[in-house]
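Q: Convert this sequence to structure tokens.
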Amino acid sequence: MGYGLAPKDAMAAAASPKPVTCSSCGFKNPPNPKGGRCGSCGASFDRVSLTPSRPSGEINRYQQEGFSLTWMLIGLGIQAILTTAIVIGLPMVVPIFDFEGWHGMLVSIAVWFLGGLLTGLISPGKTFVEPFVATILVAIPAVIYLIDSQTVRTMPSFMYVIMAALGVLFGLIGAYTGERIQMGPPPKPRTT
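A:
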């Protein structure tokens, strides 16, 4: 008539608890893990829920919380100024530099990496997406300009698109690198 376990069944369940499965590696640990850690990977378990736990700051250390329009516009300015100055302006001032075809795209990839790196270094908090979006917005007119201005060193249009996608990826890598430099080394694990 009772809906719960009978006293005899409850004592039997308490005497033979189920093994604890680690959610990090899937290893089946004994019911009361020694030292409160997984026997395979060493992840610590909460005493209450017996699930692997990490400090919330360690989990969120590399995660971006939102999108900042201000830092996207700042990143857009940095990318636009660098791209205009180096890819377009430098060949006008120093005629020996001729950034046509794949030369112009290679220089653009390096410039977009540098722009992402600078934006990641100077922006407060974690901003990976803002320089990425800024690089996309700068890559479109830069590719159009390079396609229209090619004379001797020509390249198919789809190659410009592929190299621009590579440049946007390098802009994201630069932003991530800048953020990692800004955050410093990860904290050392605590020993208990």
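The first helix runs from residue 7 to 15.
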